[in-house]
Amino acid sequence: MSAQHRTTxxxxxxxxxxxxxxxxxxxxxxxxxxxxLVSVATTVGIVFALLEPTIEFFGxxxxxxxxxxxxxxxxxxxxxxxxxxxxxxxxxxxxxxIVVAVPLGLATAIYxxxxxxxxxxxxxxxxxxxxxxxxxxxxxxxxxxxxxPLLRDVFPFLELEAKNGLSAGLLVGVMIIxxxxxxxxxxxxxxxxxxxxxxxxxxxxxxxxSVRVVVPAAFSGIVAAIILAISRAAGETMIVAIAGGFKxxxxxxxxxxxxxxAAFIAQAGSGDAPxxxxxxxxxxxxxxxxxxxxxxxxxxxxRMVQKYRExxx
Length: 313
Known about the structure:
The protein has helices at residues 3-19, 23-60, 63-67, 84-115, 118-131, 136-154, 165-189, 193-201, 206-217, 219-234, 238-244, 261-272, 278-308; strands at residues 72-73, 80-81. It is an all-alpha fold. It has a two-stranded antiparallel ribbon. The radius of gyration is 26 Å and the shape is globular. InterPro entries: MetI-like (IPR000515), MetI-like_sf (IPR035906), Phosphate_PstC (IPR011864).
């Protein structure tokens, strides 16, 4: 066979291969699209599940009563529907958690990204991520049986109840450290080495380079990690239920027992509220409010990531 014929046959074979349908690629595309749609469908399903009972709740309880009172007790008689005690408790415990998690998480991320040797990083980062897999009920009992007695011994001037927001907030903070540390370290690792080398060439130390060059360059990812951690802390249930308690009292003192929004949902959803009653519908109203709060934080996170994202060639 001549070279011309071989070339023609080879071209025909390539054309036939290109025109032949690739069923494997089609199947992979469908599977990936289905996986993406699952998260969207789940979110839509949550919204529809919350919507109808929430509308029915606000058909009986006005927004003024819901947001205009500081007395919360929908499971008591007479019932009270002022939601501010559980909102304040949620924000208070979340704030304590962020005060714990952000400095420790960022310090850990800077160490792993800028100071740790590859061998240390290979050992330390998986250990850190294992912390994220510890059941939250373990954190809750640890806070109740160890942290609260320890705080009473070390700081005897603190008036801590057996269950209190301070211990719960501290352990929620420990729980979300891996979120801040891991995601922030990933963002810092993505910063081009050219920026570091330019800083070193100007005489900057490693610490100055880390704080003034790497962290600002990875700022969008760090902000996303922190807001994701805030959302996780706000929705935490078991730690705050075990260590924080279920007392729905409007208080700003973290040493008092307090119930967060998630803790109330866990309490009321355990069977204390008969299905169809206004107390039962309160679960969905509080769930909708918590969903809106976390959705708003995630939206702010996405906008800030877009605003401060650094693009490198």
